[in-house]
Design goal:
The chain has helices spanning 20-25, 48-59, 71-83, 98-112, 135-162, 184-203, 229-234, 247-258, and strands at residues 39-43, 63-68, 87-92, 117-120, 167-172, 209-216, 269-272. It has 295 residues and is of the alpha/beta class.
Length: 295
């Protein structure tokens, strides 16, 4: 058969790099027993960066507790990890409810008698021009991204204080060095998280509690689905490297801050954004005509 007549074999679809299977197999610089014997708590662990971080902590030997509002998503992650010999459990928790957060920590202590690190990755937003935000929409994002993060932070610190144990908190936020048109509500909330992180990093240093933030740039997860298609098409122009970050890159950054590698780091923001805070344009609700280059 000639080359011109031969039909090309159908190409198998590329595996989603954010699927649990891909994340579980992705190379990592960390040794497999880095967190052996430790207990890690990850909020928002059913999807996105939270799921990637939870999977990596499990790969590195930790027993991982994930929480979120949707039990079905959480259970899928737990089943995946357990089938591969990892240790993980899930609890459906709304971090905006302080009573549910308190019950979560009580469960962790009753079940495991310890907690070593917390990653706050629960959050959410929607793209809309700020002038059109409803009171309900604004409050929902603030409650989720600021208040929920605070409830988890405070309860973790109280736990470590009451049990005379050290601890580490990583708050997954956003890059706040520049504005992000279309999500003013989440920028306000994330700036609040940065402010409280820098403050309690000093207050809690005598308790041997470290508190840091991870500021991811645009990351290729299902979280991008909340943005309009025309905005998503421009996202690769939003940073100097002209690509989206991966969930695995963000997970490894969480590990860096949580492990002994971050032992002398507190009150800091680790920005992982491909140079996005230095160069590029980001329009999460789509580029307004005013800002289009006229020819």
């Amino acid at each position: 058969m000639s080359a011109t007549n031969a039909q090309e074999a159908p190409q198998a679809p590329a595996e989603n790099p954010n699927s649990p299977a891909a994340l579980w197999q992705a190379p990592t610089v960390y040794r497999p027993d880095l967190f052996a014997g430790q207990v890690a708590l990850v909020s928002g662990g059913g999807s996105g960066i939270g799921r990637a971080a939870a999977l990596l902590f499990a790969r590195l030997g930790a027993h991982v507790v994930i929480c979120g509002r949707t039990a079905e998503k959480l259970d899928k992650v737990v089943d995946f990890v357990r089938q591969r010999g990892g240790s993980m459990e899930a609890l459906a928790v709304n971090v905006r409810e302080p009573e549910q957060v308190a019950a979560l920590f009580e469960h962790v202590h009753a079940r495991h008698g310890r907690l070593d690190l917390l990653v706050n990755s629960a959050g959410g937003q929607f793209a809309q021009n700020a002038i059109d935000f409803s009171v309900k929409g604004w409050n929902a994002v603030i409650n989720n991204n600021l208040n929920g993060t605070w409830y988890m932070m405070q309860r973790a610190a109280q736990y470590w204080r009451d049990h005379s144990k050290p601890g580490s908190i990583v708050n997954v936020i956003a890059v706040i060095d520049r504005g992000m048109p279309g999500v003013a509500h989440t920028m306000a909330a994330r700036a609040g998280v940065v402010g409280v992180t820098r403050t309690v990093a000093v207050e809690w240093a005598p308790l041997n509690i470290r508190v840091n933030c991870l500021a991811p740039g645009l990351t290729a997860t299902e979280g991008l689905d909340v943005y309009p298609p025309e905005a998503v098409r421009e996202f690769p122009k939003a940073n100097a490297m002209k690509r989206r970050g991966t969930a695995m890159e963000m997970a490894e950054a969480c590990v860096y801050l949580s492990a002994p590698s971050g032992g002398f780091i507190t009150g800091e923001i680790l920005t992982v954004d491909g140079g996005g805070r230095l160069w590029g344009e980001l329009w999460t609700a789509g580029r307004p005509d005013w800002f289009r280059i006229q020819t």
